Amino acid sequence: MKDYFMVVRLINERDRHLARQLVEDNGFIFEEDYDLLFGKFEDGELVATAARDHNVFKMICIRESHRGGACLGELITALIDSCTYTDIRNFFVFTTLENRGTFSHLNFTPLITHGKVCLLEYGHGLANYLQQHSALKRAGNNGAVVVNCNPFTLGHRYLIEEAAAQVDHLYVFVVREDRSLFPFDVRMALVREGTADLDNVLVLDTSDYAVSHVTFPGYFLKQDDDRLQLQMEIDLLLFARHIAPFFGITRRFIGTEPFCRTTRSYSDTMPHILGAAGIQTDQLERTSSNDDPISAFRVRKAFRNEDYEDLRKLVPATTLNFLHSTDGRKLLTTSKKYRRRH
C-alpha cells in the first residue's frame, strides 16, 4: 500500500533541488524569486510542486502519473491558505491553454487568453479595482499614459501636458509595483503634485493590471519561446480588453525611447495590439535638456551625485522639493547602490 502525504512547505536545500528538478524535467524554468515553495511527496518522491510570489501562483508542476486527480486542488488550497494572515485576497496564475478549464473548476476566472497562454484570477480583484475608480469615469475623447515615474521628471510632465492638450480627459496610470528606488506612495504623490494644474488629468494607480509581475510571467514558457514578446502582448491585451473600455480610452500616449531596448520593443508592439482593439497609439518625441533626452535614469544619477544644479533642469519644483526633504535625503543613501535602468 502506498504511503500518501499532505502538501508541505519545501524549506531545505534538498527539497528545493527536487522541486527544481521536477520543474526543469517538464521543460519549464525554475524561478528563484518566490515567497513560499510547496510540494507533495509520495513514497519519498516529490510528485508535485508549486510556489507563491506575493499574489502570483507559479511553478505549478505535477508528475504526469498524478495529473487529473486531487493533487492540483491540494496545491492551490495550500497556496491560498498561506495568505490567511496577510492582506492578499486575490491571486493570479498563468497556465497553458489546455489547463484553463482545470483552473476554472477551481474558481479561477480567465482574464486574458492569448495564443497558448491564459491568465486567470482567483477572487474579484479586477472588478473591485474598476469599481473603486468608477467615480473617475468621464465621457468624451479620452487618452491614457502609463508611467513609473522613478521619480517624476520634466520629461513626464511634458508627455502628460502634451497628451492632455489632445484629449478631453487624460488618465495617468502610475505603476503600483514597488520595485523602484522611489516607493509607490512617493511616486504617486509626485505625479499628483506635478500635474495638479492640469484640470483634465486624472491620476490613478495600475494595481496589478499593468506593467507588474502579474502581467509579466515567464516560468511556464518553454525556453525556446519568445518570452519577452508574449509578456508584452499579455500586458497590452489586459489594458485593451479591460482597462481601456471601462474608462472609455481610445488613445494611449508614449514617449520615444532612445535608451532601453525592452521599453522600445514594448512601444513597437503597442500599435499592433491596441490598434486591433480600436485604440490609437501616439508617440511623442522625448523632451531634452542640454541636447540630452531627459530620463528618470539621468535624474537618479544626478541625485546620487548630489548635482542639484543639473536636477533643477530635469525635474519640476515639486520633485526637487521632495529631493531636498528629510524623506528625500533618506533615499539618497539608498540611491548610491541603485543601478537599475528603471
Summed over residues and divided by their number, the pLDDT gives a mean of 91
CATH superfamily of the largest domain: HUPs
The secondary-structure class comes to alpha/beta
Low confidence ranges: none
* CATH-assigned fold name of the largest domain: Rossmann fold
Distance between the termini: 56 Å
Strand content: 15-25%
What composes the largest sheet? 7 strands, mixed
Describe the oligomeric state of these chains in a short phrase. single chain
Strand order of the largest sheet: 1-2-3-4-5-7-6
CATH architect. name of the largest domain: 3-Layer(aba) Sandwich
Q: What's the CATH class label of the largest domain?
A: Alpha Beta
Instruction: Note the total helix count.
Output: 12
Tell me the helix content.
25-40%
Overall radius of gyration: 22 Å
Any idea how many domains?
A: 2
Q: What is the H/E string?
A: EHEEEHEHEEHEHEHEHEHEEEHHHH
Shape: globular
Count of DSSP E strands? 14
Describe this structure in words.
- The protein has twelve helices and 14 strands.
- It is an alpha/beta fold.
- The protein has two domains: 120 residues, Gcn5-related N-acetyltransferase (GNAT) (Aminopeptidase, 3-Layer(aba) Sandwich), CATH 3.40.630; 206 residues, Rossmann fold.
- The strands form three sheets. The chain has a seven-stranded mixed β-sheet, with helices on both faces.
- The longest helix has 21 residues.
- The relative contact order is 0.11.
Please render the helix and strand layout as text.
Elements: E1 8-9, H1 13-25, E2 36-42, E3 45-53, E4 56-62, H2 71-81, E5 91-96, H3 100-104, E6 108-114, E7 117-122, H4 125-132, E8 142-147, H5 154-164, E9 169-174, H6 184-194, E10 201-205, H7 227-247, E11 249-255, H8 261-276, E12 280-284, E13 288-289, E14 292-293, H9 296-304, H10 308-314, H11 317-324, H12 326-335
Parallel strand pairs: 4-5, 8-9, 8-11, 9-10, 11-12
Antiparallel strand pairs: 1-2, 2-3, 3-4, 5-7, 6-7, 13-14
Helix pairs in contact: 7-8, 9-10
